Amino acid sequence: MFLNVFSNKKKFTLILLSSLLLGIFIFLTNSKPTSSEKNGEITPTVFIHGFKGGPGTFNTMMNRLEQQNAGSTRMVAYVSRQGHVTLRGSLPPNMEPFIQVLFENDRASLKQQTIWLQEVLHRLKERHSIQQINLVGHSMGGLAATNFLLHYQEDQYPVVQKLAVIASPYKGIKKEGYFEVHSSPAANDLKPDSEALNSIFLRREFFPKGVDTLVIAGVINPYEEESKHWDGLVHASSVRALKSIVPFGSYREEIVFDKSATHSGLHEHPEVDRLLGEFLWGKPNE
Fold it and tell me: Where do the coiled-coil regions begin and end (predicted)?
């Protein structure tokens, strides 16, 4: 009988001690924010390349911005041809992280790229607790970012605070002979009056209010009449057409007049770096 009493007291003591330790663990867990919780306080900038783009589109720009203390490249989102998303890197709190989105199939349709972008941004919210982001897109990447916003679901994705598009052809590409050389789902969507481009304007009423938007176009022939201003591939008027979609008060445009402000040269242009730095982080980059 004595042994049974002793055994019961020992069990009671162990249960009491276990409960106490569990309570301390729960208290510490709830009282100290985790890295994921702190990630809700940061605003990553997501960079999206365009048609036939890849790492080279934004790698050097992000390196320059990093050297200018605008932020730090922290993550790459790889999207396979089958649509599988792999996030590589980490998002430490208390910083301005850069995230580059890379589509293995860089000739996919605008609809497909938008679906892939949705998956990337959904994962950032669900797995990394990202609550707000900025979007930067070059050419077709800007179209994908805009199309994402036109199909935005607040409970599924981070809130987009700012959108910057560089040389994005909202009215298509009119360069003579271009589509005789380029043939793919993406190329079809880049034709003037394509169904994909028309759908963007048909959904203009769904563009979220409060998304500050910057449009950057390049003009390599400033001495020509304005209707002929272009970056060697996309006319400035095609880029500026986004103005009819963005709600009043949220739209801003900048034109870079320079012979080096070509379609692919804009993401290497120091003036574009400066404009992005001022727009995204409130300070000009030197």
Answer: none
Cα 151 to Cα 103, 225, 239, 262: the distances in Å are: 20, 37, 20, 31
Phi-psi label, residue 129: left if phi above 0, alpha if psi -120 to 50, beta otherwise: left
Domain boundaries in the chain? 43-281
Helix (H) or strand (E) holding 217: strand 212-219
pLDDT digits over 132-179, tens only? 999 999 999 999 999 999 999 989 999 999 999 999 999 999 999 999
Q: Find out whether 229 and 174 touch, Cβ atoms under 8 Å.
A: no
What DSSP character marks residue 69? T
- Tens of pLDDT, residues 73-124: 999 999 999 999 999 999 987 778 999 999 999 999 999 999 999 999 999 9
* CA–CA distance, 251 with 70 (Å, rounded to integer): 23
Q: What is the CATH number of domain 43-281?
A: 3.40.50.1820
**CA–CA dist 222, 228 (Å, integer):** 9
- The residue length of the chain stands at 286
Would you say 163 and 210 are in contact if contact means Cβ atoms under 8 Å apart? no
Angle between helices 270-281 and 55-67 (to 10 degrees): 70
Q: What are phi and psi of 22, to 5 degrees?
A: -65, -40
CB 137 within 8 A of CB 50: yes
| Per-residue exposure over 26-58, b if at least 16 CB sit within 10 Å of its own CB, e if not | eeeeeeeeeeeeebeebbbbbbbbbbebeeebb
> Which pTM does this prediction carry?
0.85
